[in-house]
Design brief:
about 300 residues; about 30% strand; seven-stranded mixed sheet; alpha+beta; 10 helices
Length: about 300
């Protein structure tokens, strides 16, 4: 396999021709796109990820196509397709990177059932995972990015992929999606600490407001295909002006909230319930209201 950053011309050509076969274990994704915006994004933000130089059997076949008609030339729009199915409206051509990210999230959430999939950020430390499920706007992604800047490794910003047999969570490191004020908070921190993390361009006027993707430095990434036991589950809520309040929650309450945040709990049925029962029995769960990250960080180090 080849690293994306080392072969920009090959990446660009593959995207426009037979497709780029991107390695994101456990997935191989075939991506086609005629826009240079996605090629530039891949070689910069996915720099350390790898692709296959030859065609592979793909988990998902994805294409970002330009819309036809006068708009193709006057105000180029691009649309996401997965096996000719288009689940989203078209977006400006310059937004191809976030259309790719959101489209891949859709594919994993809707079509992948080999694991129990939960909408959550996941980070690891000392070989053990912290799962952070939270609804949009709770500060999940900002917290995930800041933890990765303080000794934690990134497994995922979007999905906890939990193996049904081992109950361990698998690494799927991708760029962290930041919105609105979260972008400024992290950018200020990265500049202050001279971190080697990389930001994408900012995308304005999306359904989520102002959006940017953040690629954490390679030393903060968990290794692909590595799995971790889940030690803690954290349900955070950012509350401006509040230092930090940590409240333990019961295994039963944790199970219900994890099930509510799962994309395929109903599809997997009894297997999913047994898996989550094992997870909550062997981990500790907390709800956290915080307004000061440093206070939360200090609290995390004291939690069982």
């Amino acid at each position: 396999m080849l690293k994306l950053a080392a072969y920009p011309e090959q990446v660009r050509a593959a995207l426009k021709q037979q497709g780029l076969f991107l390695s994101l274990p456990p997935f191989v994704i075939q991506v086609r796109c005629s826009s240079n915006a996605l090629a530039d994004y891949f070689t910069r933000i996915y720099a350390n990820h790898e692709f296959f130089p030859q065609p592979q059997v793909a988990s998902f076949n994805i294409e970002l196509k330009h819309e036809r008609g006068l708009r193709r030339w006057l105000k180029p729009q691009i649309r996401f397709y997965q096996n000719e199915h288009a689940p989203f409206y078209s977006m400006p051509e310059s937004h191809a990177p976030i259309l790719w990210e959101w489209g891949l999230n859709y594919c994993i959430a809707a079509k992948y059932h080999a694991c129990l999939t939960i909408h959550a950020a996941v980070v690891a430390k000392n070989g053990e995972a912290l799962v952070i499920p939270a609804p949009p706007g709770s500060g999940k992604s900002t917290l995930c990015a800041l933890l990765c800047s303080h000794g934690w490794q990134l497994l995922s910003d979007e999905f906890a992929l939990i193996d049904l047999s081992s109950q361990q969570v698998q690494a799927l490191p991708r760029p962290i999606s930041l919105k609105n004020q979260s972008i400024d908070v992290l950018r200020e921190y990265v500049e202050k600490t001279q971190s080697h993390g990389r930001f994408s361009a900012e995308f304005l006027g999306t359904s989520k407001g102002r959006v940017a993707l953040y690629s954490v430095p390679s030393e903060q990434l968990a290794q692909n295909q590595q799995s971790y036991p889940i030690k803690r589950v954290l349900f955070p809520r950012y509350c401006q002006g509040l230092h930090c309040e940590v409240t333990p929650i019961s295994p039963a309450q944790c199970l219900m909230q994890l099930a509510d945040n799962s994309f395929n709990f109903a599809v997997l049925g009894q297997a999913a319930f047994i898996c989550l029962a094992e997870v909550v029995a062997s981990s500790h769960a907390y709800s956290v209201d915080y307004g000061n990250f440093n206070t939360l960080l200090a609290q995390l180090d004291t939690l069982p």
